[in-house]
Specification:
The complex is a heterodimer of chains A (about 550) and B (about 90).
Chain A: H1 7-14, E1 20-25, E2 28-33, H2 34-50, E3 58-62, H3 66-78, E4 82-85, H4 95-109, E5 113-116, H5 121-127, E6 136-139, E7 159-165, E8 173-178, H6 179-190, E9 203-205, H7 212-224, E10 229-231, H8 234-239, H9 242-250, E11 255-258, H10 260-269, E12 285-288, H11 295-305, E13 315-317, E14 319-320, E15 327-330, E16 339-343, H12 344-348, E17 362-366, E18 370-371, E19 376-380, E20 393-398, E21 405-406, H13 410-416, E22 417-418, E23 421-431, E24 434-440, E25 445-447, E26 450-452, H14 454-462, E27 467-479, E28 482-492, H15 498-513, E29 519-522, H16 538-546, E30 553-554
Parallel strand pairs in A: 1-10, 3-4, 3-5, 4-7, 5-6, 9-10, 11-12, 12-13, 28-29
Antiparallel strand pairs in A: 1-2, 7-8, 8-21, 14-15, 15-18, 16-17, 19-20, 20-23, 22-23, 23-24, 25-26, 27-28, 29-30
Chain B: H1 2-21, H2 41-55, H3 70-83
The chains are: A alpha/beta (about 550), B mainly alpha (about 90).
Chain lengths: ~550, ~90
């Protein structure tokens, strides 16, 4: 299956099989064959054309329902328009803020139409005044015209879709992928150096489809290999994590991917009685990616679920990003995660992976494996030359999966893709050809010539009582000719007094890293934004702090402003 | 009989909140789940699952955004438990 195919071509081929997706909602499953989904897509395609959309127009899809989303995506592709996926409003979110943010994306992208659920159409109608190019707000439920005979099918070099990622470091940006990109990545994922997909495989996923791992990894990966996939809703998983494991057991799933946090949630929340009758021995590939991978989480999961047939060798920790379609590296299959225990100070200060000595502060990193076949990986040091074995640098990638660019943003595209190399902004090192990821390049805090990764500080603060779980941002503020000031922004949970909390945080960072925290800022709940993949919006929070727009209390500047 | 039943629900809700929080919290009826008790969206869904099991009810997700205080949670659980048909469970 190394042939490159456009999305409509892959759908057409899958439609000749008897396979399809099974959509599970509220305990009811609904199977739709690829042939049935193709028929729905033809109807969507005709409706989009009749609404006045033309080849190359951008259509934003804001649809939470998996079946409705996928058929809209396929239909747009068949109609020759460019589909873009945007995340729908959160279950418990502030709708007016959502529409303000989303209007910004629609305006920048020059979207011609929004296709959304009936419940959201009035909200999008209301933002049209601020989006001059937005001509149409369409309800997905209304897109049912007689099927269209395809006459504007895309070619391999047309845009397959634009994914608006919220990236950890800035405002949302649209990753434009060609059909060639998509097919190259999916083929590599399914290929022998990836999942090694066979005719016996079937997927189970609860991942959102507006995120690359859910869309490309679980939905399109199955489509391109004409294999079945069972799709649950993200809410169903978060509410009852046992539903994920039960679905794998029930549908005899062989492939299922999730971020590290999901494995942690399963360990903490699945109860003994949930596991009655559950058998995970079918789970051949337990993929893990999309966020930093905690070695301890994987170990705890393997230990906990061994009694229902889970094998640690099923884990496939991998690295990737939307700008590279999805996957960039895979370790060999059927191998328990490979970890390295490193000296924390050597890693941050020396940019060098060195084994930790006894008694030394250490960091455990998980191997994400090797570059995909036909793709290349290179670690670039601070001086721009290729890093040595074990030397930390920026991860750069080349090959057919590197995105076309950021949609309508030539400047950012030129900054990110240089001489064919995608500069990921992530830090890592290679050890015997395998990639270990250690953080993001742009966020490094430098104090007195020593470098600290904000994520490390944040993880340390996560464990402190009185801090809302996962709501911590650390950054440095550069001052002319002086060391950076270290600022930690925290959302308190209200269980500790403000001054005590600030004191505890400072002591914790001082103990763990020997680093003085210049300022602890306590902000109201909801101030620290998250990206669609759950990472904290560090750069955005830092920018707000610098603009003086962070509404909170600086509990102790410690009077050290010189 | 109404007083004991509602006290029971109140105690049950507070018990669930304490268990889910995994931190020492002292919820009162006036506590705001997010602002005072520090629950995030993941934990709120966990609270819902726990309440459903404990009270044998089904909580619709579309009513969740409007529920902010412990008193509102107690009221919603009481309403759902009340409208539940059929013989009592044990």
């Amino acid at each position: 299956m190394n042939r490159l195919r456009t999305l409509p071509e892959a759908l057409g081929e899958a439609a000749r099989s008897a396979e399809g997706y099974t959509f599970v909602a509220d305990g009811v499953d609904r199977r739709q064959t690829y042939a049935e989904l193709q028929a729905s897509a033809f109807r969507v395609a005709r409706a989009l054309r009749e609404a006045g959309l033309r080849r190359g127009d951008l259509v934003a899809l804001v649809i939470a329902d998996a079946e409705q989303f996928l058929t809209a995506l396929f239909g747009a592709s068949i109609a020759g328009v460019v589909p873009a996926s945007l995340y729908p409003p959160a279950t418990a979110g502030d709708l007016s803020r959502y529409f303000t943010l989303t209007a910004g994306i629609l305006r920048t992208a020059g979207a011609r139409a929004v296709v959304t659920s009936a419940a959201l159409t009035s909200g999008f109608e209301a933002v049209r005044t601020s989006c001059p190019e937005l001509a149409l707000v369409l309800s997905r439920e209304d897109l049912v015209a007689p099927p269209l005979e395809p006459d504007a099918l895309p070619s391999l070099d047309d845009i397959a879709f634009v994914q608006f990622t919220s990236g950890s470091t800035s405002a949302p940006k649209g990753v434009a992928l060609s059909h060639r990109n998509l097919s190259a990545n999916v083929n590599a994922i399914n290929g022998p150096a990836g999942l090694g997909t066979t005719a016996d495989d079937s997927g189970v996923s609860w991942l959102p489809l507006y995120h690359d791992m859910g869309l490309v990894g679980m939905a399109l990966g199955a489509l391109y290999s004409a294999r079945p996939s069972v799709l649950l809703s993200p809410q169903a998983f978060v509410k009852r994590p046992a539903e994920w494991l039960k679905a794998i057991s029930h549908y005899r799933g062989t492939v299922s991917f999730a971020p590290s946090f999901a494995y942690d949630l399963a360990v903490r929340r699945v109860r003994e009685r949930d596991l009655e009758g559950v058998d995970l021995s079918c789970w051949r590939v337990a993929g893990c990616g999309a966020e930093p991978i905690h070695a301890a989480t994987l170990a705890a999961f393997a230990e906990r679920f061994a009694l229902v047939g889970f094998r640690a060798a099923s884990f496939l920790p991998c690295y990737g990003l939307a700008e590279h379609v999805l996957a960039a590296t895979f370790p060999p299959r059927d191998r328990a995660p490979r970890v390295q225990h490193l000296s924390a100070s050597q890693l941050t200060e020396g940019r060098q992976a060195t084994a930790a000595q006894a008694g030394e502060q250490s960091v455990t990193l998980v191997s994400c494996g090797r570059a995909l076949p036909g793709h290349e990986i290179r670690i670039v040091g601070a001086d721009g030359r290729e890093a040595q074995e074990g030397e930390v640098g920026e991860i750069t990638l080349a090959g057919p999966s590197v995105m076309l660019g950021y949609y309508r943003d030539a400047e950012l595209t030129a900054e990110t893709i240089r001489c064919g190399w995608l500069h990921t902004g992530d830090l890592g090192y290679l050890s015997e050809g395998e990639l270990f990821v250690c953080g993001r390049a742009k966020d490094v805090i430098i104090v007195n010539g020593r470098k600290y990764h904000p994520q490390d500080l944040e993880w340390a603060v996560f464990g402190i009582m009185g801090v809302r779980r996962g709501r911590v941002v650390a950054f440095g503020i550069g001052e002319q000719g002086a060391s950076e000031r270290v600022v930690i922004v925290v959302e308190p949970s209200g269980t500790a007094a403000a001054d005590v909390l600030a004191d505890t945080i400072r002591r914790c960072i001082s103990d763990a890293f020997g680093l003085y925290v210049d300022e602890v800022v306590l902000v109201p709940s909801g101030t620290i934004g998250r990206t669609t993949s759950g990472k904290v919006q560090r750069a955005a929070t830092r920018a707000r702090y610098q603009r003086g727009a962070l509404i909170g209390r600086a509990t102790d500047e410690a009077g050290l402003h010189a | 009989m109404q007083q004991p039943a509602s006290t029971q629900i109140e105690d049950g809700v507070i018990d669930v909140l304490k268990n889910v929080s995994r931190r020492p919290i002292e919820p009162t009826l006036e506590s705001d789940l997010v602002a005072d008790l520090g629950f995030d969206s993941l934990q709120i869904l966990e609270v819902i699952a726990e309440l459903e099991d404990r009270f044998d009810i089904s909580i619709p997700l579309n009513g969740v955004p409007a529920t902010r205080t412990v008193a509102q949670v107690v009221a919603q659980v009481a309403r759902l438990a009340d409208s539940r048909e059929g013989p009592p469970t044990e």
